[in-house]
């Protein structure tokens, strides 16, 4: 070939073939012809490659500027796919250590499967009231204990004072666990003592003795109103004889630094009771803990909700008639600790009515 194109010649496989006079010879002649690469082709190729390199350089520079500029970071991120939703751990089926075993929200009626209402009874010589069934009722979703001065006298026997008492004795009782009551009181005018407490289902023999001027019963008081200071105290009482009675006071609510009127709103009293300690709290704030195991009750207790008229030292007997006070209970609840051994001394009548076995764990 020519000298100027010899370097560009390329011999391809004998693929092209040529018709040579098909009409006369009717045969094929395979030929191999060199391809020539003129200088113009090389120039175009070099310019194309150089252009692509420039485009790439400008693109990288632009991307770098975008990432370094705070005002444009959002524009870049906007085109990125959203991050996947975080996979939260599934809640444990046993989130709480407590298992609800009893609840009464007092929605409609007083359920006599669970409660006993005292009527035509008194409670000790220093108290003025006569407990009547009609003074215990449900209204607007709350249990109501009404205390009333119908007629008054400077000497108690000549006056008429009524109040209410309701208890779960022989209907529901339980040992240990968490007990809750949400309650409020109206003004007590210095003579009514509303109380929510727990008392032994079957008091030990040492407590079965005659009245001797003061409480000689084992008792856990969640809330008991002082009608003079309008504060609530929580306590645990025990003792072998009247003279040896002892009381541990968990605390008072509200304290002097808290301008809280107990008649303004409901408050939640809670008791946590186990074999070695008793803790009482109000609205989630712990009052204190009694952790002397030999003083902790270790037998079943039941609910007692009532209001006393006078019945405390220094009480001035009311002489005005038509005085009324109310204790309102929104609900009571009892929980058992999950996994803890549960006593079988709970009322079989209660469990049967709830569709549960009295030996249920």
What does this structure look like?
It is a single chain. The chain has helices spanning 39-68, 70-77, 348-353; strands at residues 17-19, 28-30, 98-104, 116-117, 130-131, 136-139, 142-151, 160-163, 165-167, 177-185, 192-200, 219-226, 231-238, 246-253, 267-273, 278-282, 285-290, 301-309, 323-337. It is mainly β. The strands form 3 sheets. Strands 3, 5, 6, 7, 8, 10, 15, 16, 17 and 19 form a 10-stranded mixed beta sheet that branches. A 7-stranded antiparallel beta sheet has the order 4-9-18-11-12-13-14, with no helix packed on it. Strands 1-2 form a two-stranded antiparallel ribbon. Strand 7 (142-151) and strand 8 (160-163) form a beta hairpin. The longest helix is centred in the N-terminal third of the chain and has 30 residues, at 39-68. Residues 1-13, 15-32, 70-79, 88-94, 206-215 and 343-361 have low confidence and may be disordered.
| Main beta sheet strand tally, sense and closure | 10 strands, mixed
Backbone CA Rg = 45 Å
Strand content: 25-35%
The helicity comes to 10-25%
Total beta strand runs: 19
Query: Please, how many helices?
Result: 3
Structural class: mainly beta
Quick check: average pLDDT? 74
Order of helices and strands: EEHHEEEEEEEEEEEEEEEEEH
Q: Which stretches are low in confidence, meaning pLDDT under 50 for 5 or more residues running?
A: 1-13, 15-32, 70-79, 88-94, 206-215, 343-361
- Estimate the global geometry from the Cα principal axes: elongated
Distance between the termini: 106 Å
Multimeric state:
single chain
